[in-house]
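Researcher: Next entry in the queue.
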Amino acid sequence: MKIYQVNIKCFNLIGMKEFYTKVLEMELVTENDDGFAVLVGKTKLEFEKVDKLPFYHLCFRTNESFYDYMYQKLEKQSVLFPHPDGELSFYWKGKQAYFTDPDGNILEMLERPLSVKDPQIFLSW
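Model: Structure for this entry, 125 residues:
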């Protein structure tokens, strides 16, 4: 499955734009008073300002070197979710970590080798 665009609602428009463009280093492609959009690999992720705090879980797939780079960056931001045993990174056919954005959405970063059998239900970073 190829995902070309994902639209999500957001409450903290300024904080979300700062987080996705500066912290996660996603390219800003459009912006107006009601929202903005970034590129996640080849997928456009659009944010629309709303008055009620929404909640999402998004997964971003990346390669090993970018995973390691971004993991260190997210660790410094103190946004990583620990596992009940205190670990911040998990291993299930590769590396994965969970973190939050300014609206409190749960984001997942996943690094593992591509397989023909793998469902492509995540955004490639």
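Model: The longest strand covers residues 43-49.
Researcher: Noted, moving on.
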